[in-house]
Amino acid sequence: MGALTLTNVTKSFGSTDVIKGVDLQVEHGEFCVFVGPSGCGKSTLLRMIAGLEDVTGGDVMIDGERVNDRAPAKREIAMVFQSYALYPHLDVRANMGLALKQAGVARDEIRAMTDKAAGMLSLDALMDRRPAELSGGQRQRVAIGRAIVRRPKLFLFDEPLSNLDAALRVQTRIEIARLHRELGATMVYVTHDQVEAMTLADRIVVLRAGRVEQVGAPMDLYKDPANTFVAGFIGSPQMNFLKGAALGMRSETVGLRPEHLRPDNDGPISGSVSHVEKLGGETLVYVTTEAHGLLTLRLFGEHDYDVDSVLRLGFDAARAFHFGADGLRLRD
Amino acid sequence: MSIARNQGTLTRSIAAHAALLTWTVIALFPVFVIVINSVKSRRVIFADPLALPTAETFDLVGYQTVLAQGDFLLYFTNSMIVTMASLFFVLLFGAMAAFALSEYRFRGNLLMGLYLALGIMIPIRLGTVAILQMMVATGLVNTRTALVLVYTAQGLPLAIFILSEFMRNVSSDLKNAGRIDGLSEYTIFFRLVLPLVRPAMATVAVFTLIPIWNDLWFPLILAPGESVKTITLGSQVFIGQFVTNWNAVLAALSLAIVPVLVLYLIFSRHLIRGITAGAVK
Protein backbone atom coordinates (compact mmCIF):
# COMPACT_ATOMS: atom_id res chain seq x y z
CA MET A 1 0.00 0.00 0.00
CA GLY A 2 1.50 3.32 -1.07
CA ALA A 3 1.84 6.49 0.98
CA LEU A 4 -0.63 8.22 -1.33
CA THR A 5 -3.06 6.62 -3.72
CA LEU A 6 -5.37 8.50 -6.06
CA THR A 7 -8.10 6.46 -7.72
CA ASN A 8 -9.94 8.04 -10.64
CA VAL A 9 -9.93 11.41 -8.87
CA THR A 10 -12.02 14.12 -10.55
CA LYS A 11 -12.81 17.74 -9.76
CA SER A 12 -15.41 20.03 -11.33
CA PHE A 13 -16.18 23.66 -10.69
CA GLY A 14 -19.78 23.90 -11.84
CA SER A 15 -19.78 22.51 -15.37
CA THR A 16 -16.02 22.90 -15.86
CA ASP A 17 -13.99 19.75 -15.33
CA VAL A 18 -10.61 20.69 -13.93
CA ILE A 19 -9.29 17.24 -13.03
CA LYS A 20 -10.50 14.56 -15.40
CA GLY A 21 -9.74 11.29 -13.70
CA VAL A 22 -6.28 10.88 -12.19
CA ASP A 23 -4.88 7.54 -11.03
CA LEU A 24 -1.60 7.63 -9.18
CA GLN A 25 0.30 5.74 -6.54
CA VAL A 26 3.14 7.37 -4.59
CA GLU A 27 5.35 4.99 -2.63
CA HIS A 28 6.71 5.58 0.88
CA GLY A 29 9.74 7.84 0.87
CA GLU A 30 9.25 8.82 -2.74
CA PHE A 31 9.75 12.36 -4.07
CA CYS A 32 6.98 12.84 -6.59
CA VAL A 33 6.77 16.02 -8.68
CA PHE A 34 3.66 17.22 -10.50
CA VAL A 35 4.69 19.31 -13.44
CA GLY A 36 2.75 20.97 -16.22
CA PRO A 37 1.94 24.33 -17.78
CA SER A 38 -0.14 26.81 -15.80
CA GLY A 39 -3.80 25.88 -15.69
CA CYS A 40 -3.13 22.15 -16.06
CA GLY A 41 -4.68 21.45 -12.64
CA LYS A 42 -1.53 20.46 -10.76
CA SER A 43 -2.12 22.89 -7.88
CA THR A 44 -5.79 21.93 -7.69
CA LEU A 45 -4.78 18.27 -7.47
CA LEU A 46 -2.35 19.08 -4.63
CA ARG A 47 -5.02 21.06 -2.80
CA MET A 48 -7.39 18.11 -3.16
CA ILE A 49 -4.79 15.85 -1.55
CA ALA A 50 -4.43 18.42 1.24
CA GLY A 51 -8.20 18.59 1.70
CA LEU A 52 -8.42 22.28 0.82
CA GLU A 53 -10.62 21.45 -2.18
CA ASP A 54 -13.45 18.94 -2.20
CA VAL A 55 -13.04 15.87 -4.34
CA THR A 56 -15.87 15.62 -6.89
CA GLY A 57 -15.28 11.94 -7.64
CA GLY A 58 -12.86 9.12 -6.90
CA ASP A 59 -10.82 8.35 -3.79
CA VAL A 60 -7.85 9.96 -2.10
CA MET A 61 -6.05 7.52 0.19
CA ILE A 62 -3.20 8.53 2.49
CA ASP A 63 -1.28 5.62 3.97
CA GLY A 64 -4.11 3.25 3.08
CA GLU A 65 -6.90 5.30 4.64
CA ARG A 66 -9.56 7.04 2.62
CA VAL A 67 -9.40 10.74 3.53
CA ASN A 68 -11.93 12.29 1.11
CA ASP A 69 -14.09 13.63 3.92
CA ARG A 70 -11.39 14.29 6.47
CA ALA A 71 -10.43 17.85 7.46
CA PRO A 72 -6.94 18.98 6.34
CA ALA A 73 -5.62 19.05 9.90
CA LYS A 74 -6.62 15.40 10.43
CA ARG A 75 -4.83 14.08 7.34
CA GLU A 76 -1.36 14.15 8.93
CA ILE A 77 0.06 16.21 6.10
CA ALA A 78 2.09 19.41 6.00
CA MET A 79 2.12 21.93 3.23
CA VAL A 80 4.57 24.59 2.09
CA PHE A 81 3.06 27.42 0.07
CA GLN A 82 4.42 29.61 -2.67
CA SER A 83 3.70 32.76 -0.67
CA TYR A 84 5.21 31.25 2.54
CA ALA A 85 1.93 31.94 4.40
CA LEU A 86 3.58 32.54 7.75
CA TYR A 87 1.41 33.84 10.57
CA PRO A 88 2.31 37.53 10.76
CA HIS A 89 1.46 37.91 14.46
CA LEU A 90 3.64 35.03 15.67
CA ASP A 91 7.42 34.74 15.94
CA VAL A 92 9.33 32.00 14.14
CA ARG A 93 9.15 29.56 17.04
CA ALA A 94 5.40 29.99 17.46
CA ASN A 95 4.88 29.74 13.70
CA MET A 96 6.65 26.40 13.68
CA GLY A 97 4.97 25.12 16.81
CA LEU A 98 1.39 26.17 16.15
CA ALA A 99 0.20 22.89 14.66
CA LEU A 100 1.63 20.93 17.59
CA LYS A 101 0.04 23.34 20.04
CA GLN A 102 -3.32 22.84 18.30
CA ALA A 103 -2.82 19.08 18.52
CA GLY A 104 -2.29 19.38 22.29
CA VAL A 105 1.40 18.46 22.47
CA ALA A 106 3.15 19.42 25.72
CA ARG A 107 5.14 22.66 25.72
CA ASP A 108 8.53 21.10 26.47
CA GLU A 109 8.07 18.68 23.64
CA ILE A 110 7.06 21.43 21.22
CA ARG A 111 10.19 23.32 22.19
CA ALA A 112 12.39 20.31 21.62
CA MET A 113 10.81 19.58 18.25
CA THR A 114 10.99 23.17 16.99
CA ASP A 115 14.63 23.40 18.13
CA LYS A 116 15.46 20.24 16.23
CA ALA A 117 13.81 21.49 13.04
CA ALA A 118 15.50 24.87 13.46
CA GLY A 119 18.84 23.10 13.73
CA MET A 120 18.25 21.23 10.47
CA LEU A 121 17.48 24.48 8.65
CA SER A 122 19.96 26.72 10.55
CA LEU A 123 17.18 28.92 11.84
CA ASP A 124 18.42 28.91 15.46
CA ALA A 125 19.37 32.58 15.48
CA LEU A 126 16.01 33.67 14.10
CA MET A 127 13.63 31.92 16.48
CA ASP A 128 12.38 35.09 18.20
CA ARG A 129 11.84 37.16 15.07
CA ARG A 130 8.58 37.95 13.36
CA PRO A 131 8.05 37.02 9.69
CA ALA A 132 8.25 40.72 8.75
CA GLU A 133 11.86 40.79 10.00
CA LEU A 134 13.00 37.93 7.76
CA SER A 135 14.25 37.85 4.17
CA GLY A 136 12.42 35.86 1.50
CA GLY A 137 14.75 32.88 1.72
CA GLN A 138 14.54 32.83 5.50
CA ARG A 139 10.75 32.97 5.38
CA GLN A 140 10.61 30.00 3.07
CA ARG A 141 12.98 28.08 5.37
CA VAL A 142 10.66 28.84 8.29
CA ALA A 143 7.72 27.59 6.22
CA ILE A 144 9.63 24.38 5.49
CA GLY A 145 10.54 24.14 9.18
CA ARG A 146 6.88 24.49 10.09
CA ALA A 147 6.16 21.49 7.87
CA ILE A 148 9.01 19.36 9.27
CA VAL A 149 8.03 19.94 12.90
CA ARG A 150 4.74 18.14 12.40
CA ARG A 151 6.40 14.90 11.25
CA PRO A 152 3.67 14.41 8.68
CA LYS A 153 2.99 11.29 6.64
CA LEU A 154 3.09 13.41 3.55
CA PHE A 155 4.81 16.68 2.65
CA LEU A 156 3.08 18.84 0.07
CA PHE A 157 4.94 21.65 -1.69
CA ASP A 158 3.04 24.16 -3.82
CA GLU A 159 5.62 25.91 -6.02
CA PRO A 160 7.74 26.77 -2.99
CA LEU A 161 10.60 28.31 -4.95
CA SER A 162 8.66 30.56 -7.33
CA ASN A 163 8.99 33.69 -5.21
CA LEU A 164 12.73 33.34 -4.65
CA ASP A 165 15.46 34.83 -6.82
CA ALA A 166 17.55 32.54 -9.03
CA ALA A 167 20.52 32.00 -6.69
CA LEU A 168 18.33 31.38 -3.67
CA ARG A 169 16.15 29.05 -5.72
CA VAL A 170 19.09 26.75 -6.47
CA GLN A 171 20.20 26.86 -2.85
CA THR A 172 16.74 26.07 -1.47
CA ARG A 173 16.29 23.33 -4.07
CA ILE A 174 19.42 21.63 -2.79
CA GLU A 175 18.19 22.09 0.76
CA ILE A 176 14.86 20.42 -0.04
CA ALA A 177 16.67 17.51 -1.71
CA ARG A 178 18.88 17.13 1.37
CA LEU A 179 15.86 17.18 3.70
CA HIS A 180 14.20 14.52 1.62
CA ARG A 181 17.24 12.29 2.00
CA GLU A 182 17.59 12.94 5.73
CA LEU A 183 13.93 12.57 6.62
CA GLY A 184 13.14 9.79 4.17
CA ALA A 185 9.68 11.30 3.97
CA THR A 186 7.15 11.08 1.18
CA MET A 187 6.93 14.35 -0.69
CA VAL A 188 4.61 15.64 -3.37
CA TYR A 189 5.89 18.74 -5.07
CA VAL A 190 4.13 20.96 -7.60
CA THR A 191 6.03 23.14 -10.04
CA HIS A 192 5.77 24.54 -13.53
CA ASP A 193 9.56 24.55 -13.82
CA GLN A 194 10.81 21.39 -15.51
CA VAL A 195 14.34 21.98 -14.19
CA GLU A 196 13.05 21.72 -10.62
CA ALA A 197 11.14 18.62 -11.59
CA MET A 198 14.16 16.98 -13.22
CA THR A 199 16.56 17.77 -10.38
CA LEU A 200 14.35 16.87 -7.41
CA ALA A 201 12.06 14.08 -8.47
CA ASP A 202 12.28 10.35 -8.04
CA ARG A 203 9.25 10.29 -10.27
CA ILE A 204 7.63 13.00 -12.39
CA VAL A 205 3.94 13.22 -13.18
CA VAL A 206 3.38 15.35 -16.28
CA LEU A 207 -0.10 16.87 -16.31
CA ARG A 208 -1.98 18.60 -19.08
CA ALA A 209 -5.54 19.94 -18.94
CA GLY A 210 -6.48 17.84 -15.90
CA ARG A 211 -5.08 14.57 -17.23
CA VAL A 212 -1.88 12.67 -16.54
CA GLU A 213 0.19 12.58 -19.74
CA GLN A 214 3.00 10.41 -18.46
CA VAL A 215 4.52 9.19 -15.20
CA GLY A 216 8.11 8.13 -14.81
CA ALA A 217 11.61 8.78 -13.52
CA PRO A 218 13.14 12.02 -14.89
CA MET A 219 15.54 10.25 -17.24
CA ASP A 220 12.85 7.85 -18.45
CA LEU A 221 10.68 10.79 -19.46
CA TYR A 222 13.64 12.46 -21.09
CA LYS A 223 14.77 9.44 -23.02
CA ASP A 224 11.42 7.87 -23.67
CA PRO A 225 8.59 10.45 -23.89
CA ALA A 226 5.15 9.02 -24.67
CA ASN A 227 3.97 11.92 -26.83
CA THR A 228 4.92 15.29 -28.25
CA PHE A 229 3.64 17.16 -25.18
CA VAL A 230 5.92 15.36 -22.74
CA ALA A 231 8.78 15.44 -25.25
CA GLY A 232 8.38 19.21 -25.57
CA PHE A 233 7.88 19.89 -21.88
CA ILE A 234 10.76 17.89 -20.45
CA GLY A 235 14.20 19.10 -21.41
CA SER A 236 15.56 22.58 -21.87
CA PRO A 237 15.92 24.04 -24.42
CA GLN A 238 12.78 22.49 -25.85
CA MET A 239 12.90 19.56 -28.25
CA ASN A 240 12.77 20.45 -31.94
CA PHE A 241 9.80 19.07 -33.87
CA LEU A 242 10.47 18.50 -37.56
CA LYS A 243 8.09 17.49 -40.29
CA GLY A 244 8.62 13.83 -41.16
CA ALA A 245 7.49 14.19 -44.77
CA ALA A 246 10.10 16.87 -45.48
CA LEU A 247 12.82 14.51 -44.21
CA GLY A 248 11.49 11.61 -46.26
CA MET A 249 10.37 9.69 -43.17
CA ARG A 250 7.07 7.96 -42.72
CA SER A 251 6.24 9.47 -39.30
CA GLU A 252 4.25 12.70 -39.10
CA THR A 253 6.61 14.44 -36.65
CA VAL A 254 10.25 13.82 -35.87
CA GLY A 255 11.50 15.01 -32.47
CA LEU A 256 15.16 15.92 -32.03
CA ARG A 257 16.77 17.27 -28.88
CA PRO A 258 18.85 20.44 -29.52
CA GLU A 259 22.01 18.56 -28.52
CA HIS A 260 21.35 15.86 -31.13
CA LEU A 261 21.36 18.28 -34.06
CA ARG A 262 24.75 19.18 -35.49
CA PRO A 263 26.19 21.30 -38.26
CA ASP A 264 26.77 18.98 -41.23
CA ASN A 265 27.49 20.19 -44.75
CA ASP A 266 25.86 17.06 -46.18
CA GLY A 267 22.93 17.17 -43.74
CA PRO A 268 19.32 17.01 -44.91
CA ILE A 269 18.18 20.25 -43.24
CA SER A 270 19.01 23.69 -44.55
CA GLY A 271 18.33 27.03 -42.91
CA SER A 272 19.77 30.39 -41.96
CA VAL A 273 21.12 31.38 -38.55
CA SER A 274 18.72 33.79 -36.85
CA HIS A 275 20.39 34.20 -33.47
CA VAL A 276 23.32 32.88 -31.44
CA GLU A 277 23.39 32.69 -27.64
CA LYS A 278 26.78 32.05 -26.04
CA LEU A 279 26.49 30.74 -22.52
CA GLY A 280 30.19 29.99 -21.98
CA GLY A 281 30.02 26.24 -21.57
CA GLU A 282 27.64 25.85 -24.46
CA THR A 283 26.34 27.79 -27.45
CA LEU A 284 22.72 27.84 -28.57
CA VAL A 285 22.20 28.48 -32.27
CA TYR A 286 18.73 29.32 -33.56
CA VAL A 287 18.23 28.33 -37.17
CA THR A 288 15.23 29.31 -39.27
CA THR A 289 14.30 26.67 -41.83
CA GLU A 290 11.70 26.77 -44.53
CA ALA A 291 10.39 23.28 -43.93
CA HIS A 292 10.46 23.03 -40.12
CA GLY A 293 10.33 26.58 -38.74
CA LEU A 294 12.74 27.66 -36.00
CA LEU A 295 15.15 24.98 -34.78
CA THR A 296 17.43 25.15 -31.75
CA LEU A 297 20.91 23.73 -31.90
CA ARG A 298 22.98 23.14 -28.80
CA LEU A 299 26.73 22.97 -29.22
CA PHE A 300 29.27 22.44 -26.48
CA GLY A 301 32.01 25.01 -26.12
CA GLU A 302 32.21 28.33 -27.91
CA HIS A 303 31.15 28.66 -31.54
CA ASP A 304 30.77 31.59 -33.91
CA TYR A 305 28.13 31.90 -36.59
CA ASP A 306 27.15 35.01 -38.49
CA VAL A 307 23.50 35.88 -38.29
CA ASP A 308 21.76 35.20 -41.64
CA SER A 309 24.53 32.85 -42.77
CA VAL A 310 23.33 29.61 -44.32
CA LEU A 311 23.79 26.45 -42.25
CA ARG A 312 23.12 22.82 -43.07
CA LEU A 313 22.21 20.50 -40.23
CA GLY A 314 22.43 16.78 -39.78
CA PHE A 315 21.40 14.35 -37.06
CA ASP A 316 21.82 10.80 -35.91
CA ALA A 317 18.72 8.91 -37.01
CA ALA A 318 18.98 6.62 -33.98
CA ARG A 319 18.45 9.63 -31.70
CA ALA A 320 15.25 10.78 -33.39
CA PHE A 321 11.83 10.29 -31.79
CA HIS A 322 8.95 9.51 -34.12
CA PHE A 323 5.43 10.72 -33.45
CA GLY A 324 2.15 10.05 -35.27
CA ALA A 325 -0.42 12.59 -36.41
CA ASP A 326 -2.19 12.30 -33.01
CA GLY A 327 1.02 13.32 -31.20
CA LEU A 328 1.59 9.83 -29.77
CA ARG A 329 4.98 8.19 -30.01
CA LEU A 330 5.44 5.62 -32.75
CA ARG A 331 7.49 2.65 -31.58
CA ASP A 332 8.80 0.07 -34.00
CA MET B 1 14.13 68.64 -19.14
CA SER B 2 14.00 67.33 -15.61
CA ILE B 3 13.73 70.87 -14.27
CA ALA B 4 10.74 71.50 -16.49
CA ARG B 5 9.17 68.32 -15.23
CA ASN B 6 9.87 69.34 -11.63
CA GLN B 7 8.19 72.66 -12.25
CA GLY B 8 5.24 70.81 -13.74
CA THR B 9 4.84 68.66 -10.66
CA LEU B 10 5.35 71.71 -8.43
CA THR B 11 2.52 73.61 -10.14
CA ARG B 12 0.33 70.53 -9.96
CA SER B 13 1.11 70.04 -6.29
CA ILE B 14 0.31 73.72 -5.55
CA ALA B 15 -2.98 73.39 -7.43
CA ALA B 16 -3.85 70.20 -5.56
CA HIS B 17 -3.03 71.76 -2.21
CA ALA B 18 -5.03 74.90 -3.05
CA ALA B 19 -8.06 72.77 -3.87
CA LEU B 20 -7.66 70.71 -0.71
CA LEU B 21 -7.14 73.77 1.47
CA THR B 22 -10.24 75.44 0.03
CA TRP B 23 -12.25 72.34 0.74
CA THR B 24 -10.86 72.12 4.28
CA VAL B 25 -11.77 75.74 4.97
CA ILE B 26 -15.31 75.25 3.65
CA ALA B 27 -15.74 72.04 5.67
CA LEU B 28 -14.34 73.44 8.89
CA PHE B 29 -16.02 76.84 8.72
CA PRO B 30 -19.31 75.85 10.41
CA VAL B 31 -17.41 73.99 13.14
CA PHE B 32 -15.22 77.04 13.62
CA VAL B 33 -18.23 79.37 13.90
CA ILE B 34 -19.89 77.07 16.45
CA VAL B 35 -16.77 76.84 18.59
CA ILE B 36 -15.93 80.57 18.63
CA ASN B 37 -19.53 81.57 19.33
CA SER B 38 -19.86 79.03 22.12
CA VAL B 39 -17.43 81.08 24.19
CA LYS B 40 -18.99 84.50 23.50
CA SER B 41 -21.68 86.34 25.37
CA ARG B 42 -25.19 86.19 24.01
CA ARG B 43 -25.31 89.75 22.75
CA VAL B 44 -22.05 89.44 20.80
CA ILE B 45 -23.20 86.21 19.11
CA PHE B 46 -25.98 88.20 17.46
CA ALA B 47 -24.12 91.46 17.02
CA ASP B 48 -21.07 90.02 15.29
CA PRO B 49 -21.27 86.23 14.78
CA LEU B 50 -17.97 85.98 12.90
CA ALA B 51 -15.84 87.95 15.36
CA LEU B 52 -13.29 86.12 17.44
CA PRO B 53 -13.91 86.24 21.19
CA THR B 54 -12.03 89.08 22.92
CA ALA B 55 -11.37 89.68 26.60
CA GLU B 56 -14.65 91.62 26.92
CA THR B 57 -16.85 89.33 24.88
CA PHE B 58 -15.42 86.08 26.29
CA ASP B 59 -18.14 84.29 28.28
CA LEU B 60 -18.46 80.69 29.36
CA VAL B 61 -22.12 81.01 30.31
CA GLY B 62 -23.12 78.46 27.68
CA TYR B 63 -20.84 75.78 29.13
CA GLN B 64 -21.96 76.68 32.65
CA THR B 65 -25.61 76.24 31.66
CA VAL B 66 -24.93 72.95 29.92
CA LEU B 67 -22.87 71.48 32.74
CA ALA B 68 -25.21 72.80 35.42
CA GLN B 69 -28.01 70.93 33.74
CA GLY B 70 -27.42 67.59 35.49
CA ASP B 71 -28.76 65.48 32.65
CA PHE B 72 -26.10 66.49 30.23
CA LEU B 73 -23.64 63.88 31.47
CA LEU B 74 -26.39 61.28 31.15
CA TYR B 75 -27.08 62.26 27.54
CA PHE B 76 -23.42 62.03 26.86
CA THR B 77 -23.22 58.55 28.35
CA ASN B 78 -26.28 57.47 26.37
CA SER B 79 -24.72 58.64 23.13
CA MET B 80 -21.50 56.89 23.99
CA ILE B 81 -23.20 53.59 24.86
CA VAL B 82 -25.40 53.60 21.77
CA THR B 83 -22.55 54.52 19.43
CA MET B 84 -20.02 52.10 20.83
CA ALA B 85 -22.47 49.19 21.01
CA SER B 86 -23.69 49.79 17.46
CA LEU B 87 -20.14 50.13 16.21
CA PHE B 88 -19.14 46.88 17.91
CA PHE B 89 -22.00 44.93 16.37
CA VAL B 90 -21.58 46.49 12.92
CA LEU B 91 -17.89 45.58 12.89
CA LEU B 92 -18.40 42.11 14.32
CA PHE B 93 -21.33 40.99 12.18
CA GLY B 94 -20.17 42.96 9.15
CA ALA B 95 -16.75 41.30 9.23
CA MET B 96 -18.26 37.86 9.80
CA ALA B 97 -20.70 38.21 6.91
CA ALA B 98 -17.95 39.60 4.71
CA PHE B 99 -15.71 36.65 5.57
CA ALA B 100 -18.45 34.17 4.71
CA LEU B 101 -19.21 35.91 1.43
CA SER B 102 -15.60 36.18 0.36
CA GLU B 103 -14.31 32.85 1.65
CA TYR B 104 -16.96 30.20 1.06
CA ARG B 105 -18.46 28.99 -2.16
CA PHE B 106 -22.14 28.28 -1.64
CA ARG B 107 -25.32 28.49 -3.63
CA GLY B 108 -26.70 32.01 -3.70
CA ASN B 109 -23.45 33.61 -2.56
CA LEU B 110 -23.68 36.38 -5.15
CA LEU B 111 -27.37 37.02 -4.55
CA MET B 112 -26.78 37.17 -0.81
CA GLY B 113 -24.00 39.69 -1.36
CA LEU B 114 -26.25 41.84 -3.53
CA TYR B 115 -29.08 41.63 -1.03
CA LEU B 116 -26.78 42.72 1.79
CA ALA B 117 -25.39 45.58 -0.30
CA LEU B 118 -28.84 46.79 -1.28
CA GLY B 119 -29.11 48.61 2.04
CA ILE B 120 -26.47 51.07 0.88
CA MET B 121 -28.90 52.41 -1.71
CA ILE B 122 -32.12 52.38 0.31
CA PRO B 123 -32.16 54.81 3.24
CA ILE B 124 -33.28 53.13 6.44
CA ARG B 125 -35.41 56.16 7.33
CA LEU B 126 -37.95 55.09 4.72
CA GLY B 127 -38.85 52.30 7.12
CA THR B 128 -39.25 54.56 10.16
CA VAL B 129 -42.96 53.90 10.63
CA ALA B 130 -42.55 50.15 10.37
CA ILE B 131 -39.57 50.26 12.72
CA LEU B 132 -41.54 52.30 15.25
CA GLN B 133 -44.42 49.79 15.06
CA MET B 134 -42.01 46.91 15.61
CA MET B 135 -40.39 48.65 18.55
CA VAL B 136 -43.79 49.35 20.09
CA ALA B 137 -44.83 45.72 19.56
CA THR B 138 -41.64 44.41 21.18
CA GLY B 139 -41.73 46.99 23.97
CA LEU B 140 -38.39 48.45 23.02
CA VAL B 141 -39.55 52.06 22.69
CA ASN B 142 -37.53 54.39 24.88
CA THR B 143 -34.64 52.00 25.26
CA ARG B 144 -31.08 52.29 24.06
CA THR B 145 -31.43 48.75 22.66
CA ALA B 146 -33.87 50.07 20.05
CA LEU B 147 -31.29 52.56 18.82
CA VAL B 148 -28.47 50.01 18.82
CA LEU B 149 -30.58 47.60 16.74
CA VAL B 150 -31.52 50.24 14.19
CA TYR B 151 -27.99 51.60 13.89
CA THR B 152 -26.51 48.13 13.52
CA ALA B 153 -28.93 47.45 10.66
CA GLN B 154 -28.09 50.81 9.16
CA GLY B 155 -24.33 50.31 9.31
CA LEU B 156 -24.10 46.68 8.15
CA PRO B 157 -24.56 47.04 4.36
CA LEU B 158 -21.63 49.40 3.83
CA ALA B 159 -19.48 47.46 6.29
CA ILE B 160 -20.11 44.17 4.49
CA PHE B 161 -19.55 45.75 1.11
CA ILE B 162 -16.19 47.29 2.02
CA LEU B 163 -14.90 44.45 4.17
CA SER B 164 -15.71 41.66 1.74
CA GLU B 165 -13.67 43.43 -0.92
CA PHE B 166 -10.73 43.64 1.47
CA MET B 167 -11.08 40.06 2.67
CA ARG B 168 -10.94 38.77 -0.88
CA ASN B 169 -7.41 40.19 -0.97
CA VAL B 170 -6.20 38.34 2.11
CA SER B 171 -3.86 35.57 0.97
CA SER B 172 -5.75 32.30 0.69
CA ASP B 173 -2.47 30.48 1.34
CA LEU B 174 -2.43 31.98 4.82
CA LYS B 175 -5.95 30.75 5.58
CA ASN B 176 -5.13 27.34 4.13
CA ALA B 177 -1.95 27.11 6.21
CA GLY B 178 -4.14 27.74 9.25
CA ARG B 179 -6.55 25.00 8.19
CA ILE B 180 -3.73 22.50 7.75
CA ASP B 181 -2.33 23.44 11.17
CA GLY B 182 -5.71 22.67 12.69
CA LEU B 183 -7.03 26.15 13.43
CA SER B 184 -10.81 26.45 13.54
CA GLU B 185 -12.58 28.74 11.07
CA TYR B 186 -13.25 31.14 13.96
CA THR B 187 -9.57 31.26 14.91
CA ILE B 188 -8.62 31.81 11.27
CA PHE B 189 -11.15 34.64 11.14
CA PHE B 190 -10.24 36.35 14.39
CA ARG B 191 -6.49 35.72 14.57
CA LEU B 192 -5.35 35.68 10.95
CA VAL B 193 -7.84 37.59 8.81
CA LEU B 194 -9.10 40.36 11.09
CA PRO B 195 -5.65 41.76 11.96
CA LEU B 196 -4.83 41.91 8.25
CA VAL B 197 -7.97 43.89 7.37
CA ARG B 198 -7.55 46.27 10.31
CA PRO B 199 -7.11 49.33 8.09
CA ALA B 200 -10.41 48.48 6.37
CA MET B 201 -12.05 47.95 9.77
CA ALA B 202 -10.91 51.42 10.83
CA THR B 203 -12.33 52.92 7.66
CA VAL B 204 -15.65 51.22 8.25
CA ALA B 205 -15.59 52.27 11.90
CA VAL B 206 -15.20 55.93 11.00
CA PHE B 207 -17.91 55.81 8.35
CA THR B 208 -20.26 54.05 10.74
CA LEU B 209 -19.49 56.08 13.81
CA ILE B 210 -20.10 59.62 12.62
CA PRO B 211 -23.68 59.29 11.30
CA ILE B 212 -24.70 57.40 14.43
CA TRP B 213 -23.26 59.96 16.81
CA ASN B 214 -24.82 62.83 14.86
CA ASP B 215 -28.23 61.26 14.32
CA LEU B 216 -31.25 63.15 15.60
CA TRP B 217 -34.01 61.32 13.76
CA PHE B 218 -34.13 57.94 15.47
CA PRO B 219 -33.48 59.18 19.03
CA LEU B 220 -36.33 61.64 18.54
CA ILE B 221 -38.73 58.96 17.32
CA LEU B 222 -37.65 55.80 19.13
CA ALA B 223 -36.09 57.03 22.37
CA PRO B 224 -37.22 60.53 23.38
CA GLY B 225 -37.51 59.54 27.07
CA GLU B 226 -35.49 61.63 29.51
CA SER B 227 -33.33 58.72 30.73
CA VAL B 228 -32.32 57.49 27.26
CA LYS B 229 -31.85 60.77 25.37
CA THR B 230 -28.70 61.08 23.27
CA ILE B 231 -26.64 64.22 23.25
CA THR B 232 -27.90 65.52 19.91
CA LEU B 233 -31.45 65.17 21.18
CA GLY B 234 -30.49 66.51 24.60
CA SER B 235 -29.09 69.70 23.05
CA GLN B 236 -32.50 70.38 21.62
CA VAL B 237 -33.88 71.28 25.06
CA PHE B 238 -32.17 74.64 24.69
CA ILE B 239 -33.99 75.29 21.43
CA GLY B 240 -37.43 76.53 22.27
CA GLN B 241 -40.35 77.65 20.14
CA PHE B 242 -40.00 81.22 21.35
CA VAL B 243 -36.64 81.49 23.04
CA THR B 244 -33.48 79.65 22.14
CA ASN B 245 -30.54 79.60 24.50
CA TRP B 246 -27.89 79.89 21.80
CA ASN B 247 -25.01 79.94 24.27
CA ALA B 248 -26.06 76.58 25.63
CA VAL B 249 -26.85 75.06 22.23
CA LEU B 250 -23.48 76.05 20.83
CA ALA B 251 -21.66 74.90 23.95
CA ALA B 252 -23.45 71.53 23.85
CA LEU B 253 -22.61 71.06 20.19
CA SER B 254 -18.98 71.99 20.77
CA LEU B 255 -18.75 69.43 23.56
CA ALA B 256 -20.39 66.82 21.34
CA ILE B 257 -17.61 67.19 18.79
CA VAL B 258 -14.92 66.09 21.25
CA PRO B 259 -15.67 62.36 21.62
CA VAL B 260 -16.12 61.86 17.89
CA LEU B 261 -12.85 63.63 17.32
CA VAL B 262 -11.08 61.42 19.84
CA LEU B 263 -12.54 58.24 18.33
CA TYR B 264 -11.63 59.40 14.86
CA LEU B 265 -8.06 60.03 15.91
CA ILE B 266 -7.83 56.56 17.44
CA PHE B 267 -9.14 54.84 14.33
CA SER B 268 -7.24 56.98 11.85
CA ARG B 269 -3.97 55.83 13.37
CA HIS B 270 -4.99 52.30 12.39
CA LEU B 271 -6.00 53.52 8.96
CA ILE B 272 -2.37 54.18 8.21
CA ARG B 273 -0.86 51.25 10.01
CA GLY B 274 -0.62 48.12 7.88
CA ILE B 275 0.75 44.88 9.23
CA THR B 276 0.39 42.83 6.07
CA ALA B 277 4.01 43.53 5.18
CA GLY B 278 6.06 40.41 5.69
CA ALA B 279 3.16 38.05 6.19
CA VAL B 280 2.96 36.93 2.62
CA LYS B 281 5.44 37.39 -0.18
UniProtKB/TrEMBL annotation, chain A:
CDD domains: ABC_MalK_N (cd03301). It comes from the Bacteria. SUPFAM superfamilies: MOP-like (SSF50331), P-loop containing nucleoside triphosphate hydrolases (SSF52540). GO terms for cellular component: ATP-binding cassette (ABC) transporter complex, substrate-binding subunit-containing; maltose transport complex. Keywords: ATP-binding, Nucleotide-binding, Transport. One of its GO terms (molecular function) is ATP binding. Residues 4-234 form the ABC transporter domain. Belongs to the ABC transporter superfamily. This is ABC transporter ATP-binding protein. It comes from Szabonella alba.
TrEMBL record, chain B:
It is a multi-pass membrane protein. One of its GO terms (biological process) is transmembrane transport. Keywords: Cell membrane, Membrane, Transmembrane, Transmembrane helix, Transport. Residues 76-267 form the ABC transmembrane type-1 domain. The keyword tRNA-binding does not apply. PANTHER family: ABC TRANSPORTER PERMEASE PROTEIN MG189-RELATED, ABC TRANSPORTER PERMEASE PROTEIN MG189-RELATED-RELATED. This is Carbohydrate ABC transporter permease.
